[in-house]
Each structure stands twice: as structure tokens, then as C-alpha cells.
Amino acid sequence: MSKMNDYIHDVFKWNKELRAFLESENVDENNELWQKMNRMTDIMEGIQNPLDNHELLEIQNYVEELHADMENYFVKRQELGSVYVNPPQVAAGNHSLPPLPYAYNALEPYISEEIMRLHHEKHHQSYVDGLNKAEKELNKARKSGDFSLVKHWSRELAFHGSGHYLHTIFWNNMMPKGGGKPSGSLLKAIEKYFGSFEAFKKQFTEAAKQVEGVGWAVLVWSPRAHHLEILQSERHMLLTQWDTIPLLVLDVWEHAYYLQYKTDRAGYVKNWWNIVNWKDVEQRFMKASELKWKPF
Ligand SMILES: [Fe+2]
């Protein structure tokens, strides 16, 4: 009996969710799907306990039929490119520049509008373009079977792909009036592994200042070791510790600070701490730390 109740409860919930979904997808009210949905709602609302087997079977059949109809409808619409039932996958060569989550001048005086504009519109865009180009060329290679340039395009894929993904994290890792300290489980994890927030900050600062040439300082969560770590990445991808998830990243390429700070990378790194968006880092950490491999 309780299994039957559970089933009816699930169908009730499903019915409600489907109605909300059809509404959110602007499915025309004259569409057959709505008529079927309405009949389904009528059936559900008319249920009186206890259900006999015949009624239960009727509901089951109706649910299955409606499910198939919904699927057909949305598969057809998806083919036309008007709707995505699941979050869309980025097709090969189809990456795009994410908008900045704040105005170009929002991080002043720590990072000037001029730098932000150049960094986002020119540099980040060029990584997006480079990544798209590499993906398309590799797609072509897969189709033709000619992989003679795979080494070159794989390098481009890593360079521009890392550039695109890291910058996408970087913009959200910052905010106007940021800074301070993180809180909650991220703070606890920092203190547990690095000893204290101050020790972490000092190591991250030194790691950023001492990146060989151009690159990044990166705070990562290791799903394997189940602890945080600070890494340096030369360029975008050299020395990268794969199988880690970037949480907090700091761009120390010249284009990120040179116009304003000239050769004073240390000054830029020091000031950068005033615009860290710890809420964003916390959210990334909460999500990323759910991922735990078997430790070795
Ligand atoms: Fe950059």
C-alpha cells in the first residue's frame, strides 16, 4: 500500500513539474500536450483512496503515454534548435566569451577599466577563438582520419582551452568590495591544511609572485587527496596538476597588470586580495569537494 502511495505521490509531483516545464517552454496552450496534461491533472485530482488495480493500471498507462509524447515533442523542437531539454553541451568550436559579471570599471582602483577591457575583450576573446579553431581542426582531423597535425592542435587545445576556462573562473573569483576572509567549510579546510588563513595567503602570494615567466597561481581542491593545494601554472597549462579543480585563480600575465603596475607584480598581487569574491570561491569549493575519488 505504501509503495502505491509513493508512486501516486511521485506522479503528482511529476505532473506538477511537467506543467511548470510546459509553461516555462512556452508550449502553445492549444497544443495536444496541454490537453493530455490537463486530462492527466483531472485524473490525479479525482483519485480517491484506495485505488483499485484497474485505476492504477490506467494511471500507469497514461503516464507512459504522456512521457513518450513529451519526449517526441521536445526531441523535435530540439532538432529545430528552439529548446534544450538538458543543459546544452558546447559543440566543437562553439565556445563563446562569457560576459563580465560586473562593469569594466568596477574593480577600480585595484584593476583599472583599461586593463579589464583589454583583458576581457581582446585577450580572453583570443583564447575563445583559439580554442574554437583547435576544436574545429581536430574535428576535421577526426572526419578525414588525417591526424598528422594532432600534436600541434592538441597543444593549441590545451593552451587556449586552459586560457578560456581559467579566465572564466578568474572573472568570477573577483568582485567590487571583495577581500576579507572566506568562511564556513572553505575556511576550515584552509586552516586544516595550511595551518592558518594567513599562512595560506602568504604561500599563495609567494606562489603568484614567483611564477616562472607568465602564468597563474591556483588554489585547487584535490578529489584524490581530499585536501586543498596551491599550485603555480607556467603559461596556462605547464606544470598543471591534472585531476584537480581550480577554485581561486590569479592571473599574473603582464596583460593583467602591466598598464597599471608596470613591473610591480607584487603590488598587483597584494592589492588583488581586496577584490576576491570569497562567496564565489566557497560555492565552487562546496560543489567541487563533493567529488572524491578513492584515496591513494
Ligand atoms: Fe589573462
UniProtKB/TrEMBL annotation:
<dbReference type="Pfam" id="PF00081">
    <property type="entry name" value="Sod_Fe_N"/>
</dbReference>
<keyword id="KW-0479">Metal-binding</keyword>
<feature type="domain" description="Manganese/iron superoxide dismutase N-terminal">
    <location>
        <begin position="95"/>
        <end position="174"/>
    </location>
</feature>
<dbReference type="GO" id="GO:0004784">
    <property type="term" value="F:superoxide dismutase activity"/>
</dbReference>
<dbReference type="InterPro" id="IPR050265">
    <property type="entry name" value="Fe/Mn_Superoxide_Dismutase"/>
</dbReference>
<feature type="domain" description="Manganese/iron superoxide dismutase C-terminal">
    <location>
        <begin position="182"/>
        <end position="284"/>
    </location>
</feature>
<dbReference type="InterPro" id="IPR036324">
    <property type="entry name" value="Mn/Fe_SOD_N_sf"/>
</dbReference>
<protein>
    <recommendedName>
        <fullName>superoxide dismutase</fullName>
        <ecNumber>1.15.1.1</ecNumber>
    </recommendedName>
</protein>
<dbReference type="InterPro" id="IPR019832">
    <property type="entry name" value="Mn/Fe_SOD_C"/>
</dbReference>
<dbReference type="InterPro" id="IPR001189">
    <property type="entry name" value="Mn/Fe_SOD"/>
</dbReference>
<comment type="similarity">
    <text>Belongs to the iron/manganese superoxide dismutase family.</text>
</comment>
<dbReference type="GO" id="GO:0046872">
    <property type="term" value="F:metal ion binding"/>
</dbReference>
<dbReference type="InterPro" id="IPR019831">
    <property type="entry name" value="Mn/Fe_SOD_N"/>
</dbReference>
<dbReference type="InterPro" id="IPR019833">
    <property type="entry name" value="Mn/Fe_SOD_BS"/>
</dbReference>
<dbReference type="InterPro" id="IPR036314">
    <property type="entry name" value="SOD_C_sf"/>
</dbReference>
<dbReference type="Pfam" id="PF02777">
    <property type="entry name" value="Sod_Fe_C"/>
</dbReference>
<keyword id="KW-0560">Oxidoreductase</keyword>
